[in-house]
Every structure is written in C-alpha cells, then in structure tokens.
Amino acid sequence: MNTNYDRAAEDLGNIVGLEHVNIRVPDQHLATLFYVTGLGLTRDPYLVTGVVNMWINVGRSQFHLPTGDPQLMRGQVGLVVPDIAALGRRLEAMRDALADTAFKFAVRGPASRRYIDVTCPWGNRIHCHGPGKRYGRVVLGMPYLAFDVAEGTAEGIARFYREVMLAPATLEPINRRPAARVSAGPCQDLIFRETKAPAAPYDGHHIQVYVADFSEPHAQLRKRGLVTEESNQHQYRFLDIVDPKNGKALFRLEHEVRSMTHPLYARPLVNRNPEQTNNAFAPGHEECAWAMPYS
Question: Which residue from 37, 63, 106, 173 lies 20 to 30 Å from 80 (Cα-Cα)?
C-alpha cells in the first residue's frame, strides 16, 4: 500500500475557482481578431451574444469584454494553451490586421519554461504557456492572474486572503521580489508581486471567484465596511484589499464573489479547436478538451 501521498497538495481552501476577468475594450471587431482569431479562444455561443459585450471561453474560465473605454490590468493574465508554436503562427498572421494598435508578442524564457508574452490591442499583457507539470492536467485554462503591487504590501495581502477570504496564501519570492500567492481553485492562483514602479491608477476592471464558504467572508468584509455591492442572493462585491492587522488599504481590485449555488457555477463551456479550418477540416476534432486524461 502506498503511504507516501501528499494529502495537503489536494487542499483547495475556500476559493474554489477563478472564473473570469472583466476588462472593457473599445472595439468588439478588434477584440474578436485578437482573442478569437489570434489567441484561438472561443466566444461563448450561448450567453451575451450581442455586439456590446462578449464572453471568451478559456477552458473553464473566461474573459468578459464589455464595450467601453479600455481598461488595463496592472500585471499579467496567465494562460495555458495546447500548442504555443501554433499560437505563434496565429499571432504572426494578425500583425497586419492589428498593426495600428498596441499589439505585439515575443517568445521568452528558457527552453524548459518557454512562453509567449502577448500584448493585446489596448496594452493588456497575457503570458501564454504550454501544458506542463506545474499546471496539472490543464491544457487550456487561466492558471493565474499576476498583479503588480506596492512595496511592503505582499505580507498584508496574504494575511487578508487567509483571514478574510479563508484562502491559503503564502509569501514567496518571484523574480527576486516578494510576492503573495493565493490559491484560487485547482491549479489556479492570484499572485501579488511587489514592484518599485509607480502604481498605475485603478480603472475599474474586476475579477470573479467562486467560494465554498460564502457567508463568513461576507461577514468579515461587512465588519470592516468593505462590501460595495449586495448584488443578489448568490453574489456580492468588494473593492479594497486591506491588512486585517491594522485596516490599511493595500490594493484596489473589485472582486465579484459568487456562491457555489450560483446558477452559473460549473456551467460547461464550449472550447473549439482553433487548428480546424474549412480548407483542412477533420471531422470529430472540432472541440478542444480543457484537460488531458490521467496517464
């Protein structure tokens, strides 16, 4: 009998899923070229199908892209894609169509951890990685959001997520800078890395998470006067991450917090195989699985 299993490796904590990041874009046409044609992701075919917003599926997570003045996430979105070489070819094909925008991309990192650093037409940075052991079985997904935060705040941010959101959070160096790493679901993290660079102003972008214990974080947030919206029975929002030790505001990022009884929880998302074309079509290979089977 094997008695050497790492049982703690399977602990999730209270945040059970990072579902979406919401960033406004001024042009739905350019957003389609970038997110669907370039990145090879899938527009949700069932919900929000008009011309003023789009939901873009990434495995079990999403980008929400309502029309408006462009918003910039202060950091990077991390994606896992099935084939970064194929992604590079698609992005190369987008150079002319996106020539008059902030779009650019470059291959970075050592061979063992190579990724593509992509900038969207409005300046948001997306790091695209191939599947690997650090992402578990995921071959298409959103494994992390990495935020740039002020010096001296990572420890308090980790304390906030542990004590208020009941999520495991650790301090560790990332690129030789202190950082808080927060568990946000299976193979998903929120990362807050300290930087010396001046903080960019917050422009209203938000993230959405599902939590198992819905009421206790709400009570902790309400006690501190942090709840900003009582959305409905299944959802609330807050803006500020504070140090529970002294109440000091550390970072502003709107969180849309949903219960696991929310009607959208665990809704299956359609993910297409972007390598399929009408001129080289292979029946039965239209969809892309978000995870590989156990070996």
Answer: 173
